[in-house]
Amino acid sequence: MSLEHKFCALGADVTVTDGSVISGYASLFGQADQGGDTVQPGAYAASLAQGRQIKMLWQHDPAQPIGVWDEVREDAKGLWVKGRLLTDVAKGREAASLVAAGAIDGLSIGYRTVKAQKNDKGGRLLSQLELWEVSLVTFPMLQEARVAAKGDDPAAATMRGLAKAFDDARRLMARD
Question: What's in the keyword line of the UniProt record (predicted)?
């Protein structure tokens, strides 16, 4: 099974303090993403119980760690994370600046599906995931979590399409 990714906007709940501490939801339960997948409550429980350090990456690039997640937990809303951007690392400084300016407003999870079933809309109900990393990303996939999203906004639809194209291209390149 290969590593998969799901995107989620940082949303209104995100906070950045002291220029480097960041917190927010990396995944929201019960909301279908653009691929039709829905993460169910408890999907991360077994993975989190293993105590493995969840990596903080830049745009899912394992060669670009940008910080550390100090807290990763499930609550009734979803997967909540809190961590520190490492400003001693060039990409960490860049990420802190971009998040503070609002240029980067997305989080994305990197995971392996352990248990899932097809739903009636062509997607999956994800009931158990092995969480590997949470990345700061440019394009979120879970549109309901976007900051100041307008569901029928043509520009937002274009950006979502572009995000999908980038994700598809990344997947194709990873196969080679």
Answer: Hydrolase, Protease, Viral release from host cell
